[in-house]
Amino acid sequence: MQFQQLNAFKAVYELGTVTAAADYIHITQPAVSRLLSSLEHNIGFKLFQRVKGRLLPTDKGKAFYIEVSKAYSALESLSESAADIKNSSYGSLYIAAFPMLSSNFLPKLLGKFLSSRHNLHSSLKTYRSEEVLRRTALQSCDIGFALLPEITTGVTSIKVECDCVCILPHNSPLAALESISPHDLEGYAMISCEKDHTQRQVDKVFKKAKVKRNDVAEVSLAIAIASLVSEGVGSAIVDPFSAKYSSDTGTGIITKKFTPAIPFRFFILLPALRAKSEIIDQFIELFFQEANSAGIELRRTR
Question: Are strands 143-146 and 214-219 parallel, antiparallel or unpaired?
């Protein structure tokens, strides 16, 4: 039983003549007649009888039409379902990220992402970067964000880079400067982060400039640094995400470009043994778009 046969039968039944059915489904009258004859041969009973030049459905033809209509209704339902699936986002998005991103930028990003995608199951969990790498390699998340110097095997990675910025208290004498250099900060109180990769780069820049920092505090998290800066304790060199999040909270922190540029690097990680989905591609694209909208210039490097 072929779809063309059923289509011809349905058209003849509803329109009453072979001529009208042929015009409706855009084939010739002889082709309609052949389709009807072959369908009757396949099912083993007559569908129509000719009475005074008109085709009238037999009782079995009427019963068969009811079943054909059910099949067409099911096909229409499938078309509607396909449209719903096209306009919705079935699937999952499980994110693992290091604390700095998961505490400010990513929650806002995920909220915006979910607002236009229904039926999408998601989670955002915070881990140390080493644990993010481990979980991504084990295929237990869809996407990971890790702050590590380099990535080994087991995952597919996108290296992301941006420039650190200098954050100042709102009443800093340096607020009028376009950009801040190590020499500008000489003698001023500063807050540093514990010795991670970024802080070691900051140390090198000051050492090369032969400027001794006046460090008055050392903390573990960039958000804590921003809080101390907002209290007027001192200035600091931080990643642009932490600076943006802190300035958005109305703390009065001033953000300035820092020269020479100190790169802040992290990785977007993807499970190596899993095909990348359209949802992941869209989320990564939105990640870069939203960072750019926030004034954070991200660079993808290999």
Answer: unpaired
